[in-house]
């Protein structure tokens, strides 16, 4: 267990919309287990606004180092732009704090392995986990249990879709659309949630073939990507990520031998967003199919749901979900998608080793995609 203090002491790094709108309410709902004591932001006005919203007992700091020394938090929640995630996660871990960081946890597999080196020795933490809140709704938990138990039959065909819309104003924020500061386009910054959920449901992937393009936006990274994926189970999937789509939707569909399970939502789901369709031969097997539908308890996908599980792990001194090899698999999947899209060749799991240019950066120093100063 990281600390005998109850409640645990938490701090946030970055006080923008994702922290004030998602992390702060989640912390409030867990107030019996964790207490916010510190907040870090380089923007004095934004920090002051956040402190006013957070209430008494929360101290503000202009830098992470000062906050870690003064507050000695048990938990650090990171909501800064992606380029800062790795450095801030490593500093927090080395100070003895557990880390829950907004996606992406870092910008490359190389950065991920640096974070892993800064974690505890495997017995009690501290550990770093990435925010993949879609894993934690009751609908996803139920679907994963059914799939893992073989209740829906053998997974065969899947579809993973994140088709959103972002205009030029969205990319006027200086760090967006640039490899060095965002790490990638909708593959890295938007579709990562649905792709992580797909992997969470279907398990290990084995091969990916992909394409990417800049069809509308004048950015360094892509604004659309597509992929064909083969899983170790033999199942095959299509993946689409876009910020060009007026009709916005997030969707996962998995066709199994005995049923189709489908999730349709946008930025978060409840139980009603999941649907189960029995195959013709299974429609009369009511004893078997009656429990396929989502459970009565409805836990929406949310930061609160993930924080709940994260605090459970902290209190037990166990590695939390969405960390370690589990989180690295999703990042490796993204790196493989980029490598396949940019080289035109299929990529297999485990192929991107330390000497591979796609290990160091998602653009892989490809002449058509890397920033000009790095080509």
UniProtKB/TrEMBL annotation:
Residues 142-261 form the GFO/IDH/MocA-like oxidoreductase domain. It comes from the Bacteria. Residues 281-290 have a biased composition (Basic and acidic residues). One of its GO terms (molecular function) is nucleotide binding. Residues 281-301 are annotated as: Disordered. Residues 8-118 form the Gfo/Idh/MocA-like oxidoreductase N-terminal domain. InterPro entries: Gfo/Idh/MocA-like_OxRdtase_N, Gfo/Idh/MocA_Oxidoreductase, GFO_IDH_MocA-like_dom, NAD(P)-bd_dom_sf. SUPFAM superfamilies: Glyceraldehyde-3-phosphate dehydrogenase-like, C-terminal domain (SSF55347), NAD(P)-binding Rossmann-fold domains (SSF51735). This is Oxidoreductase. The lineage of its organism: Bacteria, Bacillati, Actinomycetota, Actinomycetes, Kitasatosporales.
């Amino acid at each position: 267990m990281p600390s005998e203090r109850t409640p645990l002491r938490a701090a946030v790094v970055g006080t923008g919309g994702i922290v004030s709108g998602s992390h702060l309410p989640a912390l409030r709902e867990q107030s019996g287990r964790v207490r916010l004591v510190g907040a870090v932001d380089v923007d004095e006005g934004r920090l002051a606004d956040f402190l006013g919203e957070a209430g008494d007992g929360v101290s503000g700091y202009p830098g992470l180092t000062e906050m870690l020394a003064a507050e000695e938090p048990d938990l650090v929640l990171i909501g800064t732009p992606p380029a800062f995630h790795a450095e801030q996660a490593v500093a927090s871990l080395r100070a003895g704090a557990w880390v829950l960081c907004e996606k992406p946890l870092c910008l490359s597999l190389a950065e991920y392995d640096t974070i892993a080196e800064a974690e505890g020795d495997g017995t009690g933490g501290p550990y770093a986990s990435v925010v993949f809140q879609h894993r934690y709704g009751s609908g996803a938990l139920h679907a994963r249990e059914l799939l893992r138990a073989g209740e829906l039959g053998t997974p065969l065909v899947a579809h993973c879709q994140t088709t959103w819309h972002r205009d030029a104003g969205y990319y006027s924020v200086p760090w967006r659309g640039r490899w060095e500061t965002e790490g990638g386009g909708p593959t890295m910054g938007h579709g990562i949630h649905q792709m992580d959920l797909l992997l969470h449901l279907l398990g290990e992937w084995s091969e990916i073939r992909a394409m990417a393009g800049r069809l509308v936006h004048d950015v360094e990274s892509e604004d659309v990507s597509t992929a064909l994926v083969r899983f170790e189970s033999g199942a095959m999937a299509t993946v689409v990520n876009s910020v060009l789509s007026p009709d916005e939707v997030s969707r996962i569909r998995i066709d199994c031998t005995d049923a189709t399970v489908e999730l349709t939502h946008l930025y978060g789901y409840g139980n009603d967003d999941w649907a189960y369709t029995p195959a013709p031969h299974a429609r009369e097997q009511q004893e078997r199919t009656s429990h396929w539908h989502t459970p009565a308890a409805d836990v929406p996908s949310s930061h609160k749901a993930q924080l709940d599980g994260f605090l459970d792990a902290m209190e037990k001194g166990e590695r939390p979900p969405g960390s370690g090899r589990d989180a690295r698999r999703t990042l490796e999947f993204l790196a493989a998608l980029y490598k396949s899209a940019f080289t035109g060749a299929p990529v297999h799991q485990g192929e991107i080793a330390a000497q591979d240019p796609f290990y160091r950066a998602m653009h892989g120093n490809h002449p058509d995609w890397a920033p000009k100063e790095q080509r």
